[in-house]
Each structure stands twice: as structure tokens, then as C-alpha cells.
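Re: the pair you flagged

First of the two:
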Amino acid sequence: MVNLFQDGLVRSDTAVGTPDYISPEVLQSQGGEGVYGRECDWWSVGIFVYEMLVGETPFYADSLVGTYSKIMDHNNRLHFPSDINISKEAKSLICGFLTDRYVIMPTILSFKPRRPFPKPFVKLQNGIFY
């Protein structure tokens, strides 16, 4: 059972989501022991970006227990393959998303764009976006 409380946090008896994309907070919430909020979505963005660059998720294992174990030990288990050229900026972005909720939430909540997006952001001329 999943419960969304007035504080915007979720308390759940079971892990909800795609195993390779589940955040540590979702796993910790099993049995009602922990809570999670929107930061678990940012975790999934980090997994997605890593998968786009590397071709597989960062905590993949042959078993569900193995995957969950790697996720829970993410500070020690996140590695970038040396045979794939990944920029330091991309690594920093991924590491920024794949972090504990108490680290990422203040950053997310305080984010303000440096400048407004241009209007219109995308132009359409003769059926072509540019």
C-alpha cells in the first residue's frame, strides 16, 4: 500500500517502480520505515542518462536482490566504464542525480534558471523545427 501524506512524502509497504530505476529512498520505504518524495524521479533521470551514454543501467545485476543491493550501496557501486568516453560534465550530472535525497532536495528546491528561455523556444517554419 502506498500513502501520500500532506507533506508531499510517500510512505509505502512495498517498492514501487521499475527495479533498475528505483531510488534508495523507495527501497528504504518498504514496510513504512522510510519516506520519499519527488527526488526519486530525479534519481531515475540519472539512471536514464547513464543508460543512454553507457548502454546499460549502472546498478544492473542478474538478480533483483543483486540490483537492489547495488542501489543501496550506490556511493561505492557507481562506476563509469573506462572504455567509453564520458565527459566530466556528464559524469557530474549523473552523480548529481544519483545521490541521497538529503543532498539533492535542497539543490532542486533552490534551482532558478540563470536567464529566461527565449520566446519562442522552438520555431516551426514550413514543417521544420529549428
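Second of the two:
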Amino acid sequence: MGDIARGINFGATEQVTAAKLHALVDDATVSSIVAADITDGVITNAKISDVAGNKFTGLANIPAGSGVIPVANTNACLLSDAQTVAGVKTFSSSPIVPTPTTDMQASTKKYVDDKAPVFSGSQAFTGNGTFTPGAGINTIFVNAVGGGGGGGGGWNNAGGGGGAGAYVRNYLLPVVASTGYAITIGNAGSGGGAGANGTDGTATTVAYAGSLTLTCAGGIKGIAGNTGTGGSGGTGTNVTITASGATGGSIAAGSTTGMSGANGNGDSAAGGGGGGGYWGTGGAGQLGGVGLAGSGYGSGGGGGCGGGAQAGGNGTPGYVLIYW
């Protein structure tokens, strides 16, 4: 046993004597312990319990011959059993933790690095094309957005902004190496002229696994300033998987509804702003001017100003980005 207190040493096989016990703690605390109480010079659990009484609390539960005296201290960190540790603790070296089995358990950097996807390549599509995975590629991560709707033109009232296209992020799809998969990029909706509705954006599609297709719907057009109603965004239900023309169900994970365009307001007011998305910003409606076009991908155009018969802005086209 190493140093315990006051510089007193106990060898691995050395007996604990009354004299050394006195040297370990305040004499007043163990005043009732004398050499005569421990006639053979060896301290055991039973002897300490008999001699010390309540002066050494908790010693009666020490296993005989263990050589360990527990400290009843709520500020101590336990080596086993559950314990709540409060405050900030600084480690001089990184703690070693087991492999996590539940969501809130700690993990090592290596564990996280091993689990994180490592992409070896990517391909972006801003126009229609074909994606052909190389040898050894059997899954891909798809990011896609439909085309944004055009803003409505202003008339007596301001036109509404066009809606953004529905989009999907990092959606995992199965593919077969060296097989071509058709990519169709959604067209942007056009802004409406004075007093005319905009046009809808069209869908972006990614064909995969034979007859299956992932579809991100286009944003809905903004309505002309006769009513001043803003266009609505592509809906989450329009991000779908279809097989042989039949709807296969909505994608729940990784997809989202495109943002709706804002409504146009009253006479001589600015048009409604276009809906924005993950890759684009909706066009603004201007006071006394035409609606601005969206920016980026999949965003809606702004509505035209009311009272001045201003045109709505164009939406922006769709986009596909594939990682593998």
C-alpha cells in the first residue's frame, strides 16, 4: 500500500500497527486506541469496529482483510457505480470511453470518423443530363429542387410572389454501376405581364433503379394583382417516388416543402416577395417597379407593383447535386 497520509508508508505485505495508525490521524480522534487494544499488532475490520465505535463511521462494512478504508465524502468521484458529477471538470488527458450503444453516450473521434460518410466524388446538374455511376458505386446521395414559380403581374393591386420548388437533401438512393440514370431539371416559371398570372415552375426528377423516379415539384405561380394572391410553394407531398406512373408515397425524411410566395397588397403597393429555398432566395417585390427575379436555384419571382401595372419577376430553375 502506498502513502496514505502524513507521509506514512505501508509496504505491500507490511502489517498495520497501532503506532502507525496513530501517526495517520489526529490522536484525539483515536484516543481510545492503544497498543494494548491490538495485542497482536495487526488491525482487522472486526477489531477496528470494536475499538473505534462511532468515531470511525462506516468501517463496520469494510470486508475483512481488504486493507481499504472508505472515505464517506460526497465530493469524491467513485470508481464504480452511478454518480452525478456537477460543474466543469478538466481532464489533463482524453478519457477512454467504450463504444456507444445509445444516442446520448459519449464517443471517440475515431468512432465518429468511421461512421461519417466519406464522399469520393460529386456531380452537379443545372440542365438535363444522365448520371452514370462508376464501378463499385451502388448508392448515391441526392440533393434536388424543383423550379421556382414566376411572380404575378401588378394591376390595380400588387401581384403575388411565385412559390419555391420542393427540395430534398442527401436522400440515399440505390443505383447499379455503369447504368445511366436520367436527370431532368425543372424549368423556372415566368413572371406574369401587367395584370397576368405568372407560370408554375416544373418538376425536377431523378430516375433510378429501373422504373423508379424521385420527383421534386415546381413552385406554384404568383397570381396577378387583380386579386393580389401570392403563389404557394411546392408541397412536401410532391417530393415523391413513383413507379410506372403510380405514386409510391411521399418522402418523409430529408425533404421539405418549398416556401410560399408572399401575397401582393393593395393599390400602388409593392408586389409580394417570391418564395426562397435551400439553394436560392426569392425575388423581391418593388414599390413602383417590376417584381425582381429569384436568385440561386428553385426560388420564386417577386410580384409586380400595384397601381402601375408592373410585371412579375421570373423564378429560377431547378438543380441536382449527387454525391457518392
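The radius of gyration is 37 Å.

-B.
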